[in-house]
Write a structure and sequence with these properties.
This protein has twelve helices and two strands; from the N terminus they run ααααβαααααβααα. It is mostly helical and about 300 residues long. The protein has a two-stranded antiparallel sheet. It is globular and about 75 Å long. GO terms for molecular function: transmembrane transporter activity.
């Protein structure tokens, strides 16, 4: 039971990050490596501001910082004409030093003994189980951001982002500024990723400079797993599937590590195997459908 609750908490919080990955990877069709840096940026900003006594303001500041990071990547891509992957690598590399600067040249910041969003809400709701409070906060935040994004992608700008990912040339011929649309999308994407990092830092009670390593791959796995369970439908369901996929991914990780088969230091290996399988699912399904069609053709011949 404890395993399932812990996976639910982490899955929903990391689901915010999966929402950001969904925007850049699925809607905009851009593999944005800025995610590794913007996630840690959210942790760093949140941790520092929480230690200063502003845990709720820290969430907003993290979102703004993430949006700025995404905008820089968008600027490098659109105005400087740098390849999308190289542009995101440049931003990600620069953010490493920025994050260290924010954290006071320390590789980690502890929040032990500090008031976080979770402890403040717990103190105001005495008598209620702490796990229930954490679950309610995680569910509320993930559903709130999902709802806001669902509404946003039905607006003119949101539809322009979706159209740009489908057919950039057509959107450009419609007198829509594709460069601005891409930059806005990357800003929103990294804002969600930074928010996830901000909540994680307060949830776990510390921020570490290496926490964002591999975040993009984890986010991609969450998106793919979610699509396996919910299929390719509307953007609203697609965003929701990213959150569900993140929760399922965390549960799989927890189950794998709770067994005696894998040692604690095997987390990266387990994650890599799960991610590899998840990302291979579309190709596996395509091959299965191909061979099924061939068998049917032979029977009918």
């Amino acid at each position: 039971m404890t395993l399932a609750i812990g996976s639910l908490h982490l899955g929903l919080i990391y689901g915010l990050m999966a929402l950001g990955i969904y925007i850049s990877f699925k809607l905009l069709d851009i593999p944005d490596l800025t995610a590794d840096g913007s996630f840690t940026l959210g942790l760093a900003v949140s941790a520092v501001m929480t230690t200063a006594g502003h845990p709720f303001l820290a969430l907003l500041a993290a979102v703004v910082a993430g949006c700025i990071a995404g905008s820089i990547t968008g600027f490098l891509q659109t105005k400087m004409k740098i390849h999308p992957i190289l542009a995101s690598i440049i931003t990600m590399s620069g953010l490493y030093s920025v994050n260290l600067f924010i954290m006071g040249a320390s590789s980690n910041v502890s929040l032990i003994g500090k008031d976080t969003m979770f402890t403040i809400i717990r103190s105001s709701l005495q008598g209620i189980d702490y796990n229930l409070i954490k679950s309610a906060i995680a569910i509320f935040m993930s559903l709130a951001i999902w709802g806001l994004l669902s509404l946003f992608f039905k607006t003119y700008i949101g539809l322009s982002i979706r159209a740009t990912g489908n057919n950039e040339d057509m959107v450009r011929s419609s007198s829509i500024n594709v460069d601005v649309v891409k930059t806005i999308a990357l800003a929103i994407s990294n804002g969600c990723i930074a928010l996830s990092g901000a909540v994680i830092s307060q949830f776990q009670g510390y921020a570490d400079i290496s926490s964002g390593v591999g975040i993009l791959v984890i986010g991609l796995a969450s998106v793919i797993i979610g699509e396996v369970f919910m299929g390719h439908r509307s953007v609203t369901l697609g965003l929701l599937s990213a959150i569900i996929g993140s929760t399922i991914y965390r549960l799989i990780i927890a189950l794998a590590l709770s067994s005696n088969v894998f040692p604690a230091y095997g987390l990266k290996l387990v994650s890599a195997v799960i991610v590899g399988i998840a990302l291979s699912i579309p190709a596996i399904k395509e091959h299965m459908e191909f061979y099924r069609t061939r068998r049917e053709d032979r029977k009918n011949a």
